Amino acid sequence: MKTWQWCTVVAGLLLFTVIAFTYNTDMFQTIDARASQAIAGNGIITAFHYLGETIFVLVLAAVFIGICIVKKRNDYAVFTFATIIGGYIINQVVKRIFERPRPEIADQLTSFSFPSGHTMASLCWILTAVYVLNALYRQARVHTTVWIGATVLFMLVGMSRVAESRHFFSDVLAGWGLALAWFIFCVIVLQRWQQTKNKQSGHKKRHLV
């Protein structure tokens, strides 16, 4: 177990919690307004929102779970289900707890705004994809640049919601914090599960000998 993992979980939850109870303050209203003014209507950034669409994410989750099952790695199949589907469920529950209205624009969505679902979904599936594929295909080790690229990608998806005026920037920030905390927590549980299985396998082998 690595200390940085728990630190990341705590930091993500702390970021989410702080924003959850302060997004109506003058400070965050100013931050939200400036972020919106900076990128509102940016067509390039807006295009990335498709990577966080519910149907797209669910199909990807099914594909990755199927790959894990074919590879006979049920641990990674459960991990993928937990990170992506679990992350979606968490987002929906939290939205209904806070019930924050979306920015006021014409033809706005009717669902709640806080935290951003696209933001959480994209972070969960992108990091899960990199993590699982790296584990299943070790001959192609993932370098730091890939993780950086994945981070930039899910950040663009989050910012696309601000560019479209579908969310406040504070919705996106909170979504990153909560999703990152959930993803790393799932990694911790997965690693503990794998360690336990390895110990049990070791005991069985020694018993057979």
Automatic annotation (TrEMBL):
InterPro entries linked: PAP2/HPO, PAP2/HPO_sf
Name all Phosphatidic acid phosphatase type 2/haloperoxidase domain ranges.
76-187
The membrane-spanning stretches of this chain are: 44-69, 76-94, 114-133, 145-162, 168-190
Identify the Pfam families for this entry: PAP2
Q: Which UniProt keywords are present, listed alphabetically?
A: Membrane, Transmembrane, Transmembrane helix
Q: Which Gene3D superfamilies match?
A: Phosphatidic acid phosphatase type 2/haloperoxidase (1.20.144.10)
Q: What is this protein called?
A: Phosphatidic acid phosphatase type 2/haloperoxidase domain-containing protein
The organism of origin for this protein = Caryophanon tenue
